[in-house]
Amino acid sequence: MKHIPGDIPRPIPDQPVRFLDQLRQFIRQQNKAYKTEKTYLHWVKRFIRFHGKKHPGDMGEAEIEAFLGDMAVRRHASVSTQRTALNALVFLYKQFLGRDLQALDYKYSLAQRNIPVVFSHREATLIIQLLDEPYRLLAHLMYGAGLRISECCRLRIKDVDFEMNALVVRKSKGNKDRVTLLPRIAIDRLKEQIELVKAIHQRDIANGCGEVYLPFALAKKYPSAATELAWQYVFPAQNLSRDPRSDVERRHHVMDSTVQRCVRVALQQSRINKKASCHTFRHSFATRLLENGYDIRTIQKLLGHSDVKTTEIYTHVTKQGGLGVKSPVDSL
Predict the structure, then answer these.
(1) First CA to last CA across the chain, in angstroms?
(2) How far is CA 168 from the centre of its chain?
(3) N or C: which end of the chain has fewer CB within 10 A?
């Protein structure tokens, strides 16, 4: 039986004793996104290991400064990575441990965030054509709707609105919902994919399965929803998996790593010499909209960015390049 993807919260005891389990419980009580939980736990673990597994309660500002400084000097972490680690540790001390931190003095990272790599429309189309279904459809949604790979894989049937030509993205980055467009090129194939899911679901029910994972609160509120077609994933996994919390056998969604591997192979076959990935389709979506004259605030909403400054980075990679300046050599 294959392992389920890592977007199902790991079980913790009702009365956790271990420090990290207590931290997990505290994060969930604040209703933070599971990705945020995993990110915070990742950096707290790194911090503890860096200081020889010393308990965070016995450490403070000096140890945080040493850890962040090491990230900048020895590990050459980017500014955003160092800031993420800082946010996790500030949350740990200020909110979980209830300790005020004094002003921190540490070495700041110098490695700035890179300008995103984007595909031209020709390049994106070429790579998509090299993919087999359902990965071709997944790539069309990443490029045509600006979805992250995780958002594509976790898409449920009920969140595809053919009448309004819209896709509803649930509990994405920042634990927020948003609505984005449904590309016309994907409509017929999405309908075919849903019919395929319907057949798979009926077969699973006949075999005594047919449940899909629901977050704990929804599972309690709607006990029959897990077997309804509307809640099934649009891109289900090939095999059933056993939920480690309830021991229930379910069909989860296709794994991110599977999609990434297929796109990586297609990229190699295309001979496009760019350091690209699935996320490059999302970058390319934003860049095409800018090139087509759409308002940056509209693009911000479609992408689900909290801050328009995050969206503005795509102004540096539009097809005009060089801030829209025409090279004098082109006039010769």
Answers:
(1) 66
(2) 15
(3) C
Whether 305 is catalytic: yes
- Pick 115-320's CATH classification: 3.90.550.10, 1.10.443.10, 1.25.40.10, 3.90.640.10: 1.10.443.10
Would you call 282 a catalytic residue per the annotation? yes
Cross-strand partners of 65? none
Catalytic residue among 148, 201, 252, 253: 148
What pTM did the predictor assign? 0.79
Q: Is 252 a catalytic residue?
A: no
Whether 251 is a known active-site residue: answer no
Q: Is 279 a catalytic residue?
A: yes
Pick the CATH number of 19-96 from 3.20.20.80, 3.30.420.360, 1.10.150.130, 3.40.309.10: 1.10.150.130
| 294 among known catalytic residues | no
- CA–CA distance from 235 to each of 55, 106, 114, 248, 253 (Å)? 42, 45, 32, 20, 6
Task: Name the helix (H) or strand (E) containing 180.
Answer: strand 178-181
Mean per-residue pLDDT of the chain: 89
In the chain, CATH 1.10.150.130 sits at: 19-96
pLDDT tens digits for 140-158?
999 999 999 999 999 999 9
